[in-house]
Amino acid sequence: MALVFIPSLMQNLSNGEQRVSVEGANVRQIIDNLDSMFPGFKNRLVEDGRVKPNISVAIDGEITPLGMIEKVTEDSEVHFLPAISGG
Amino acid sequence: MTTADYERNMVLATDTDYKVIGTRPVRHDGADKVTGRAIYGADFDAAGLLHGKILRSPHAHAKIISIDTSKAEKLDGVKAVVTSKDFPQSESRKDQWLKDNILASDKALYAGQAIAGVAASNPHVAESALGLIEVEYEVLPPVLTTQEAMASNASILHDSLTTEELGEDTGVVSNVASHSQHVKGDISKGFEDADVIIEREYNTKTVHQGYIEPHNATALWSPDGRLHVWCSTQGSFVVRDSLAELLDLPVSMVRVTPTEIGGGFGGKIPIYVEPVAALLSRKTGAPVKIVMSRRETFEASGPTPGSQIKIKIGAKHDGTLTAAYAWMAMEAGAYPGSPVGAAVQCVFSTYDVENSTIDGFDVVVNKPKTAAYRAPGAPNAAFGAEQAINELAEKLGMDPIELRLKNVAKEGTRRPDGPVFGKIGAKEVLEAMRDHPHYQSDKAEGTGRGVSIGFWFNIGFDSACNIAVNKDGSVNLTEGSTDIGGSRTSIAMHAAEVLGIPVEDVRPSVVDTDTIGFTAVTGGSRTTFATGWAAYEAAQDVKKQCIERAAKIWDVDANGLQMEDGVISSKSDSELRMTFKELAEQLSDTGGGISGSASVNPSGVGGSFAGNIADVSVDPETGKTTVERFTCVQDVGKAIHPSYVEGQMQGGSVQGIGWALNEEYFMNDEGTMTNSSLLDYRMPTSLDLPMIDTVIVEVANPGHPFGVRGVGEANIVPPTPTIANAIYDATGKRMTQLPMSPGAILSVSPE
Amino acid sequence: MPAKTYVQTTINGEHVDFLCEPRQSLLECLRDEIGLTGTKEGCNDGNCGACTVNIDGRIVTSCLVLGVEAEGADIETIEGVADGSNLHPLQLAFLENAALQCGICTPGFIISSKALLEQNPNPSEHEIRFWLANNLCRCTGYDKIVRAVQDAAKRLQEA
Fold first, then answer.
1. What is the interface size between A and B, counted as CB pairs within 8 Å?
2. Across the interface, do B35 and C38 touch by the CB < 8 Å criterion?
């Protein structure tokens, strides 16, 4: 199962859990399964079927440009971060 | 000035097995740019051109009661006047904020905010007409700093603004637009374990990107319903998409042609005058050009924020960092969107610290809406964090570079914001600094020396590239990335390397939004990385087709052929050999031309670290700091064109030196900028500076075919703390405010 | 609209006459009336040097000169620096030393540097920095510009 790191500002949804093991082969499934374990996550992360524009998903240290369809493996780490761009 | 008995611009290359990559050709657009022939935005002309000017709010915070444009409309030569009422209705609060920053509707939120636009037969008439527009304001008290804005009794800028926490609306009406936070380990335990703790607050002022070319745009809204805009922008597609959104048009009804651009550094990502020119063109049926003045560029484009930063770090006697805490509030300006989210992710990223907590607050104030500026947010954060590290080194009696090396982040280090670093070059940068002749030399009498290091993520995003083969063996390369500093050539070098042809045989063009696939902004240090990657893929596509064509001509299996150094040959039959040029001549007769294309949105961006060594002297009487010697070291992954990589490092360093020593928006109590000219907003001149020595470190980025990491931004992160640390070394004064101007230095006592 | 004045000048060795309003700057006249847009506007108040031209042997910021003041003047702009299709050694040196990034300040720097080398064929680094202090460049940090001027001085002396 992939290891999802719960951001400190979302740990109110995970009963204080900082890291949660979640089933899923892609980001969409991870978020769906996380939401069924701890309702509210999907609402915080997803808008119109896509990752919210102000949030980035990092899989194994890399911000993914693929959003919900990015593949996740059994030993992946998943992070939700504020989105940034640059100058 | 030091005499150079060493290489002033070193390249510590790891991979030299290239023909084109790593060479220093003359740029393709060079002749046009040294002869005055290159067409920048303000140079664009069209038959029947009208000139637009914009009326701006004199107040930093005011309700707009009424706008009467009737007298202006009657002035001879005036063709049209527009206000926010000319925009289509907004669907959301954010949509309305975007429009209000172009033309204010109910409230002016900074001095300089646009109120109305006028088009006239010449710019002087348009200017005169502005004086005839009557605006009634109800002036409100301005909120000018994060401290004022976050106070419990603060005047509220937006009645509808509530604080957001990573996707959650807290429902609290406030000037704090968002709070972000990263927690790693246990910060309390980390400080309990510390033998030494350093804690301070730092403050920085609003500064501007300072590009020499003011914002400009020409718009023609054609009778067929299509809008065509020519402008200086870092991203033609961003302009297209923003215009489509604001004007409620499908993107296909907007065409944006990027002109040559006179600098941007992040500031030419947002749109300002483009929609006003478009609305004026729709009203008049004529092309309308608007060029900002320098004052408008300062007061009404997007600077980078002033900020308030608290840093607390703890370490063991042996130098091991045990805890790091940062609290940062950044001015978003009039509407939400400061770069604090990036700052919280960069502030301690150089270090492997077990316990850290970082809080960031995006705060609206009555100043221009901030825009990106080169590694946005990171220099503010580094100004605090990297001074704290030097203070710690002093307390521990350690060399500041050795202390950094002891704690440096490496591949596999978990960042304070959670993810684990891939291959990075922080250690290699610090080692190159330590070993540099500058650091190894004795300081000159009366000077102080400072060091620091900074980090920037870089970004990937979309890029597209097309390559078509000409019959003389050259190729036409089209791409959509604004060339702001030689990127046509660095991108062309990717294609030349793959095809094995001289870069002079690649003809790169930056084309409009109708002519190339979606390409994101020239920003985030992404252009050479991502558009270069698209060129690499498009060239691979061409190469594959060339091999297939040769196979067809020779009637052999393509798998038995190869193309290297511009020659297609058989792996088994030495008779079968043809140059790329010979093949190009016969394409038409053998099945038609060859063109390749690619669109990419790569991950594997690879962050960049930059470090500085600076020697300064401080005049004890006047407080004036002189930079005597300055070295910039940066991990660039692979330098495609080393001269332009050095140029980025030198340019970023000098912008950082300006930020450190001179630059700031002086705001009076009413919230009006009082130094909005280039005389009073004092950017560094040639006379203020020494040569800027460079060391290009190459820790190849495994995420890019040639190992590229973006180089444009990380170099502006370390200069402010480096200069602060050097001033401390020279004077014993710990400077906690930017800029470290003569007056500021005189007002601080040595520690 | 104010009446226009008839102005006769020499620009880049050619006789050029134009009409301008009394309030128009020489910069405006060069760009909008004559079509020589190589001279750039960065500030319109004499502080950035992007609009530098040479008038009768002196470098001036053309935004601070009125068009009508150019009557009888001999003006050199960036368009007149190359000898036909042969670039001036300064232009070559700027290209080969990568002394430009965005290029908006480059015309002003080349006009200023050319006047320097005409007066002082072998300037020191300090003399170059002092002379060019009226031209702002935000991209390069000046290092490569100073080196390009040093390189051009060498080329001109060898020629």
1. 112
2. yes
Chain B stretch 652-681, residues whose beta carbon is closer than 8 A to a beta carbon of chain C: 652-655, 677-679
- Residue range B243-258, pLDDT digits in tens: 999 999 999 999 999 9
Assess whether pLDDT exceeds 70 at residue B452. Answer: yes
Q: With an 8 Å Cβ cutoff, is B375 touching chain A?
A: yes
Percent of chain B clearing pLDDT 70 (strictly above): 99
Residue B640 lies in a domain: no
State residue B64 phi and psi, 5-degree precision: -95, 110
Mean pLDDT of B371-379: 97
Task: Answer whether B213 sits within 8 Å of C40, measured CB to CB.
Answer: yes
pLDDT in tens, B489-520: 999 999 999 999 999 999 999 999 999 999 99
Minimum-distance CB partner of B263 among C130, C139, C141:
C139
Q: Among residues 13-42 of chain B, which lie with CB inside 8 Å of chain A?
A: none
Reply yes or no on whether the pLDDT at B169 is more than 90: no
Which domain does B77 fall in, by range? 42-140+214-261+268-295
Residues contacting residue B649 through CB under 8 Å, at least 6 positions apart: B610, B632, B634, B692, B694, B696, B711, B715
In words, the CATH class of domain C89-158 is: mainly alpha
The tally of domains found in chain B comes to 2
| Domain at C5-80, CATH homologous superfamily | Beta-grasp domain (3.10.20.30)
Nearest residue of C to residue B261, measured between CA atoms: C102
Kindly state whether B210 is in contact with chain A, defined as any CB-CB distance less than 8 angstroms. no
Pairing mode of beta strands B134-139, B62-68: antiparallel
Distance CA B731, CA B624 (A): 12
Any idea what the CATH number is for the domain that residue A33 is in? 3.10.20.30
Residues of chain C with CATH 1.10.150.120: 89-158
For residues B618-653, one letter each, b for 16 or more C-beta atoms within 10 angstroms of the residue's C-beta and e for the rest, the string is: beeeebebebbbbbbbbbbbbbbbbbbbbbbbbbbb
Q: Is A85 on the interface with B (CB under 8 A)?
A: yes
Its domain, for residue A14, covers 2-82
The 10s digit of each residue's pLDDT in B192-231 is 999 999 999 999 999 999 999 999 999 999 999 999 999 9
**Touch test C–B: 3 Cβ pairs or more under 8 Å:** yes
Q: Does B418 touch chain A (CB under 8 A)?
A: yes
All residues of chain C having their beta carbon less than 8 Å from the beta carbon of residue B125 are 1
pLDDT band at B91 (very low <50, low <70, confident <90, very high): confident
Q: Is the pLDDT of residue B309 over 70?
A: yes
ipTM above 0.90, yes or no: yes
Terminal CA-to-CA distance of chain A, rounded, Å?
37
Task: Say which of A45, A60, A65 has its CB closest to residue B460.
Answer: A65
Pairing of strands B506-510, B561-564: unpaired
Kindly state the average pLDDT of the residues B603-626. 96
Instruction: Give the CATH number of the domain where residue B490 resides.
Output: 3.30.365.10
Q: Are B422 and B409 in contact (CB under 8 A)?
A: no
Mention every residue, 6+ apart, whose C-beta is less than 8 A from residue C108.
C39, C40, C48, C49, C50, C51, C52, C135
* Cβ of residue A16 closer than 8 Å to a chain B Cβ: no
Is any Cβ of chain B less than 8 angstroms from the Cβ of A84? Answer: yes
**Which of B651, B493, B249 shows the shortest CA–CA distance to C142?**
B651
B98: left (phi over 0), alpha (psi -120 to 50) or beta: alpha
* Predicted pLDDT of residue B14: 82
Identify whether B535 is part of a domain. Answer: yes
Q: Does the residue A87 lie in any domain?
A: no
- Interchain pair A87, B420: CB under 8 A: no
Give me the pLDDT at residue C2, please: 79
Amino acid C53: pLDDT? 98
Q: Is residue B33 part of a domain?
A: no
| Mean pLDDT computed over every residue of chain C | 97
Does residue B76 surpass a pLDDT of 70?
yes
The set of chains that have 3 or more CB pairs under 8 A with B is: A, C
pLDDT digits (tens, 9 = 90+) for C115-151: 999 999 999 999 999 999 999 999 999 999 999 999 9
- The total of other beta-carbon atoms located within 10 Å of residue B474's CB is 18
How many interchain CB pairs under 8 A, B with C?
A: 186
